[in-house]
Amino acid sequence: MPSFKCKDIGMKCGFTAKAKTQDELLKMIGDHARSVHSLNPVPQETMDKIMKAIKK
Ligand SMILES: [Zn+2]
Q1: Is-contact 22 54, C-beta < 8 A?
Q2: How far is the CA of 9 from the centre of ligand 1 (A)?
Q3: Are 3 and 55 in contact (CB under 8 A)?
Q4: pTM of this structure
Q5: Whole-angstrom Cα distance, residue 56 to residue 54?
Q6: Residues 6+ apart with CB under 8 A from 47
Q7: What pLDDT sits at residue 18?
Q8: Which pLDDT belongs to residue 32?
Q9: How do residues 18-43 score in pLDDT, each as one tens digit?
Q10: 6 C-alpha to center of ligand 1: Å?
């Protein structure tokens, strides 16, 4: 199951997410980035870090 931890991309944040698919996980991460980190849109550089930090 794909999972993600915000702290894996260097954020001081306790957010973790898990989803059945990577698409679902990316949606959850996107919502979190917008609401908690005020990233709207999420910069490409941050997206790259997120993609690398996702554990499958
Ligand atoms: Zn976070």
Answers
A1: yes
A2: 9
A3: yes
A4: 0.92
A5: 6
A6: none
A7: 98
A8: 98
A9: 999 999 999 999 999 999 999 999 99
A10: 5
Identity of the residue numbered 35: S
> Phi first, then psi: what are they for 3, rounded to 5°?
-140, 160
Q: How far apart are CA 44 and CA 33, in angstroms?
A: 13
Q: In angstroms, what is the span from residue 16 Cα to ligand 1's centroid? A: 8
Residue 2 burial class via C-beta count within 10 angstroms: exposed 0-12, middle 13-18, buried 19 and up? middle
CA of 14 to the centre of ligand 1 (A): 7
pLDDT of 29 reads: 98
pLDDT for position 20 = 98
- What ranges make up the beta strands (E) of the chain? 3-5, 16-18
